[in-house]
Predict the structure of EngB-type G domain-containing protein.
Amino acid sequence: MSTETSSKYGRLHKRVKVAIGRSKVSKNNVETLHRKGVERNERYRVRTVKADNADNSGRRGMKSKAGDEQIERVSSDRKRKRVYANRDSGEEGVFGNKTSSRKVLSKAAESEDKDGFVKDKRRTKGGFHDSGKFSGGDSLTGGRRSNENELIGGKDKMGFRTKAKAVYNVKNVERVESGGRKSVTIGRRSNEKELLDRRDGTNLRTTGKATYNSENVGLDDSESGMLNRGTKSKSNFVKQSHSNRKKFTAEVLSKSTKKFLLDKSSADDSVISDDRPKRRKRIRIDPHDLTNKRLDDRIASNDNTAEKKEDLEKNKDVQVSMNAKFRATKPSPSILSFVEENLLGRRREIEFRRAGYNIELSVPLDNIPNSTNSERERIEETVFRNKLTFFAAAKISSSLPPAELPEIAFAGRSNVGKSSLLNALTRQWGVVRTSDKPGLTQTLNFFKLGPKLCLVDLPGYGFAYAKEEVKEAWEELAKEYVSTRVGLRRVCLLIDTKWGMNPRDHELVDLMERSKTKYQIVLTKTDTVFPIDVARRAMQIEESLKAKKSAVQPLMMVSSKTGAGIRSLRTALATVARFAKI
Ligand SMILES: Nc1nc2c(ncn2[C@@H]2O[C@H](COP(=O)(O)OP(=O)(O)OP(=O)(O)O)[C@@H](O)[C@H]2O)c(=O)[nH]1
Ligand SMILES: [Mg+2]
């Protein structure tokens, strides 16, 4: 304080004590303090020298006058704490450990801390024998105690790393002690406890102890290598850690797994005891003694199995007979020649090439790139060169559009290829939606093909991804349509060449027979079977429908994929449009 200030306040003659913190000490004062050799971290207060104490209040032999202001160090407990806090914060900066538990530390602990830090340092420099010594002690407890001491001291420096080590080492213990399952469990448990402790944050010492202990026990080569890189002590440490492991295993197995092993053995015993009664005793049964229950049972069961076997054999016979029948079918020469001419059935690419078709094109047999102009014109003259346009859909009979044009309907079970055939016939792919998932077409869809013809895509029957009631509704509507529709000129009943006709197909045939609706069988997906089987299927169906009056001959065979038989079908259907009269 300057002399001007002192004269201003001097007349109060009061003892002025201004407690000021470090921040409040002015720069000049701090410099003064430094000159006086006072430490920076201490607290100070400014004291005005009284007149009676004027001579004696000076410090270090310096005399003071009355009214002089002196700055003196305040000694209190806070000072000491602050010192520790400062040091801790410094360590935090180094180790990044922001543990809130430092208040727990006493001064004694602090001194231990110093010791521990020294030990740690020594260890990391290659003198890890210390930890080896204590961990390699005769008992696990001993190791734990010595560890405790170290841990308490090395908490702040080791705290963070110790956690990681503990986890790592538990794994290590598991690996090393693969023979002793219980030891692994124990290691895990101790760690779990330790983790819980940590989470609670209640007892740092216990936590640290457990952590360090597990580290000690499970120290592995890699870690020792990490700590003692390039030192002689590595080999020693490895040996010691191995011995530690052995001892630990022995210890844990002998003490901790005792109960487990006992339990296990008892469990095993129980298993054995359970197994024993399960063993069937051989009982000699007199086969002629019908009063014997066991024999009765066996007879009954044998009877059941015999019945089942019989049923299976019958079914097999039916299947075999059906297949055999199909294989035995001899197609007529006309069908065989038709199949060959139209390259129906599964064919090799070379056959298409030899016949002059370009297999690079989609639906190669209907693209006719090598055809003459007259052929092309003949196709284009037909109604199928017209544009296909969707104009109505019906879910119920009342929503059916008025029958203004002659109609050709495409019926059959789900996924048989109805929609695909419409596209193939008109060569307008994508107008009618198709899917490999049965049940895509769920309404009666009406398509105009020019001014002369209407094509109707019916929903399929049989298996479809739809509710039973809905499927029944489709079937009813389809049946109603084919049996009552005025403008309906022909129904193409599509049958999958591979599977032939099923009962529902026969049902529809009967219905159309009754309603005198003209229908033509069209075998689809002929490219999925051999040509001979296409011919056989055609022959088989023709024979079964011989007596049917409404069936239009000939039976058609097509493949929407290859285009085989499509032209023939066009020709056959074009006549409907040409001669149709509504
Ligand atoms: N290999 C082969 N697959 C075909 C043929 N025709 C159709 N497919 C396939 O069979 C599946 C069903 O075809 P769709 O035309 O949708 O059958 P759909 O009868 O209309 O089926 P729904 O509408 O469910 O009644 C599709 O994955 C087609 O690609 C064919 O001639 N050969
Ligand atoms: Mg469809």
About this structure: Residues 95 and 479 are 85 Å apart (CA to CA). The mean pLDDT is 64.
